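Chapter summary example.
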Amino acid sequence: MASQPKKNDWSATQYLKFNSERTRPVYDLLSQVRPHVQSDSPRIYDLGCGPGNSTQALLDAFPGAKATGMDSSPDMLEKARSAVSGVDFVQGDLATYEVGKDADVLFSNAVFHWLRTPARIPTLVRLFEGLKPGAVLAIQVPDNYHAPSHRLMRETASASSAPWSSYFADAQIGDLSSSSRPDLDPIEAPGNFYDALIPFAGSVNIWRTEYHHVLADAHAIVEWVKGTGLQPYLHRIGEEGAKKAFLEEYERRLGKAYPELADGKVLLGYPRLFVVAVRK
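The structure predicted for these 280 residues follows.
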């Protein structure tokens, strides 16, 4: 039996409930990476590899590749090692991780948004600047700070006189100057990424896509974000009754923000920003 994730660790099982939807951006990002990779056996680093779904997609695209997957979560890495063979999966911190000088592709699916604004682009530039000429940096990040799914996290957590209110009394939700708050920082404008990378790049390709995922209902949206952006909120709530009440109120608000379709399902709009840069 697989071990349970440690307290405040990620849950690979929760994350993979929507594996198909979460992996779709990986293929969209890969489609813009392939034309830049000439080697039959590229050296690939998958930063924030999670449970290995992105790593497997990379190996499918480049069958002769040698790959390293890095993640901060022991539970994610355990799942990745059991799902994908022939890959060196290592635990690390994105903000300080160093890739080898032999890297041909530096790939990252949905991890740079976890860095705060002061560290995000500088970390990206540090990693890109260290690549050899012709190497490719490819990242994708959710860009949904203002989407109802994430706005309602902040609003629900900030509710007064609720069973969970005491757990967020000092959380400074929405205060972008606070690095300890549970809400993540908004993603910078595309031009910020371009301006930071172009001094070191032969080309920079940036695009933004909003996916519209058909989900069963508002509860399914809760299940989706429980595997990602809702985790920092749930980790703050130390009592199970308060956590249950928080989730119920959050789901109620989602139900109003995401109206039912003709068949009773809902559409979860999920915007993502993509960046592909080639080192000059």
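To summarize the output: The longest helix spans residues 240-257.
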